[in-house]
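[Primary structure, fold]
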Amino acid sequence: MISLFSDITGQGLNFDEALAAIGEERGLLSFAHPGRWVERKNNELKDYINYFDKYPHIYGIDIFNPSSFNDTIRWPHCKKLINNILMHYGSPADSGWRPIWLTATDDLHRANGVDQGLQIQLIKKFNQEEIYNSLKEGAFFWVAKAPNAEVPQIQKISFNKSSITIKGEGFDKVSWYFNNEIVHTGETFDLIKNGFEELFYVYFMAQTSDFSIEKKQGAVIGSQPFWFKKID
């Protein structure tokens, strides 16, 4: 796990004690590389649900880190896992709902691993409190990119009564996801035109035409989930 805004190292504590102590210090946590073979072998959906339920300061989970380029099964595994978690918690109208934010990290162990998995925090001022709140509230994009690729830019997101429209540059395709399936492509998702009864959230990925995990090329920028509230 990744611990932020806390000095807790875990020394002398078991795992749960360390997580609780980080929360008491107003720290934040996220799950790192759930697609790694160790996590794939040992962790099940119920394990992630258990910790998300117990510790509200666990704000997110990696959808990408650079090792996905070398161990390509990580990418589909993480996407499926995250969507299963989102499906479990349902919508804000459901009892027990909580937000889950999608993260991307470099998991940096050597210098050549920098600038492939990153986040773009949406803040008004560059200070610790603004960054803290942007993480906790999901006010950030996540990015997966090859070393020499440019990061696509999202310049505006507009909300209408039933639609979401994004504007930006540096990408060629926008895909909207629900339950690990692409349910629409294009810059605008309209719940009335493109939605269906079971759909209660979407998130988008805006990617370059050459984006490929297997070929280690191109770039994609992704949003956080948008949940829909139906009004009778």
